[in-house]
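Weekly modeling sync, notes
Attendees: S.R. (lead), two postdocs, one rotation student

Agenda item 3: backlog of single-chain predictions. S.R. asked that every request posted to the team notebook include the full sequence so nobody has to chase files. The rotation student volunteered to paste the first one in as an example of the format we agreed on. Action items at the bottom.

Example entry:
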Amino acid sequence: MAEVAATAPAPSNLAYTSFLLAVAYRGKFHEALGALLPCYWIYWEVGKTLERMGSPEPLFQRWIGTYASEQFSAVVRGVIEATNKTAAELSPPEREAMRQCFVTTSRYEWMFWDMAYRRERWPV
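Predicted structure, as returned to the notebook:
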């Protein structure tokens, strides 16, 4: 891959980022934290898995190295710790709202990877 071309975001990508921005803008701190955690955690898990396989493509191998690194691992563990600490101080309805944000973002993460695999484009 000689270069990476900039393109308009695919529908799933736009929906995902719009959800994150909406939660960050309109939601409460604990909801934003719940929504952002999968962004860190899933990339870390994917990075660790792909690191075992490696890639002959230098750009992709650099991407893998970033998300499988100890530095990124420390960040993810910090976000998990902050999430757990925050959740422990919430009322049950607040914790459920946080959980719902986590679940929704996890679903969008799946859609994001699927979108790339399918090379999703706008139908019109």
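Discussion: group reviewed the output briefly. Residues 92-118 form the longest helix (27 residues).
Action items: rotation student to repeat for the remaining queue; S.R. to check formatting next week.
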